[in-house]
Amino acid sequence: MGCITKHYLNEFSILGVWKIEEDLETLLNLVVLDNEEKKKYKSYSSNSRKLEFLSVRALLSELIGKEARIVYNKNNKPFLKDGSRFISISHSHKLTAILLSTNEKVGIDLEYMSSNIAAIAFKFLNRKESVTKEVNDRKYHLYIHWCAKEALYKICDKEGISIRKNLTIEPFIVKESGEIKGEVHTDKINESFDLYYSKYDNYAIVWTKKNYESK
Fold first, then answer.
1. What is the pTM of this model?
2. Whole-angstrom distance, CA of residue 69 vs CA of residue 57
3. Are 206 and 195 in contact (CB under 8 A)?
4. Amino acid 131: pLDDT
5. Helices (H), 83-211
6. First to last CA, the chain
7. Are 155 and 106 contacting, i.e. CB atoms less than 8 angstroms apart?
8. Count of CB atoms within 10 A of residue 84's CB?
9. What superfamily does domain 2-103 belong to in CATH?
10. What are the pLDDT digits (tens) for 66-117?
């Protein structure tokens, strides 16, 4: 299917989502890999990981051109090689998402809502957070919390952050899509963030962007 959304959030930022329905050969024909990317691609043993890798490059090409290249730091955080934009990447099951901005740090996470996430909620929820008791909304509500915290973790780019202890999502009424507030409190960071969530099929997607200075 390829790119299913290419959404300009403002004049500086763009969000794209790719649905992986192609085989490896088709995706390989959609991208131009440099030597480092070819080496990384060949290092993956599973076809699913190769498909994810290629879908990221195909989506990036669709968003800003085939010349764009992704590099990674020691913590495996992605950057654009030319430094022209901040970038955040997420993939789950058959979807890949990329958030780009020329002037703001970004964080995005998406998850296919398949597991019994309620069984592990204690690992990422803290006492300040609340989740609906409505059976039909509870799983989605929990996944929004999880994705929001992953997005915050990515935008802060800090090691040693506890998803449960240092990240808090303010209580909210769950809807199909909406805006929520998140806070990051550590010895080095004391920041609040606006996050935006939505549902696509059985996926939860949350993203955030902000021009901020860590304290």
1. 0.94
2. 8
3. yes
4. 95
5. 135-156
6. 43
7. yes
8. 11
9. 4'-phosphopantetheinyl transferase domain (3.90.470.20)
10. 999 999 888 788 999 999 999 999 999 999 999 999 999 999 999 999 988 9
